[in-house]
Amino acid sequence: MSDDVRRKVSQYRLEQFDRALEARSAGEGVPVEANDASAEPEPEPVASATPTAADRAAYVETAIQQAIRRGEFDNLPGAGKPLPGLNGRHDPDWWIRRKIESEQLTGLGPPALTLRTEDAALDDRLDGMHREQDVRAAIDDFNLRVKEARRQLLGGPPVVTQLRDPDHTVRAWHERRLERAHRATEEQERQRAEEAAPGWRERRRRRRTSRSRS
């Protein structure tokens, strides 16, 4: 059976089914050939000893068209909304990057993606360190791995992650530490002022009672 004949057979079945649906909606009750009128026929593969690519394409196309008519593609999540993460820049590995970010995977994927994810979380990791020499060592290690990845020794997509300037990164780390210390001092002063106010113990007791009831 030639490819043209197979496509014509699939198209003929789809046209027959469409006519049957139109007749049923008009109240004529015309049955779908070789099928029960109350049940929509499922697409059947074309009889062939060895299905070709055209056979499979015709079968899939018929199944898709029938699913569309049944409304199975209606009201899907995200319908009518723009795809998230599109920023106008071409990124052939966007689906890998989104998978790593959504699943919070670490150490997986090509260096171009793992370094990008690590760079986004590097400041938070540095904020957990208490000595400047540890911060500089972490920055040096990160920059070294970026340089090695740029050489494409392991293949993969190009590396677009920028090197971190050690002095600038360390200054930003110090500023964040000072800001956190300032906020902690303000919170302590606020608590001391609240405790010194008349009736503080009674107000705290009431808050604890209301929390326990809720």
Strand content: under 5%
Average predicted confidence as pLDDT: 75
Low-confidence stretches: 29-39
Order of helices and strands: HHHHHHH
Structural class: mainly alpha
Question: Could you explain how this protein is built, in words?
Answer:
With 214 residues, this protein is mainly alpha-helical. The protein has two domains: 3-70; 94-196, no CATH class. It has seven helices and no strands. α4 (111-127) packs antiparallel against α5 (132-150) and α5 crosses α6. The model is unreliable at 29-39 (pLDDT under 50).
Short structural summary:
The protein is mainly alpha-helical and 214 residues long. It is built from seven helices and no strands.
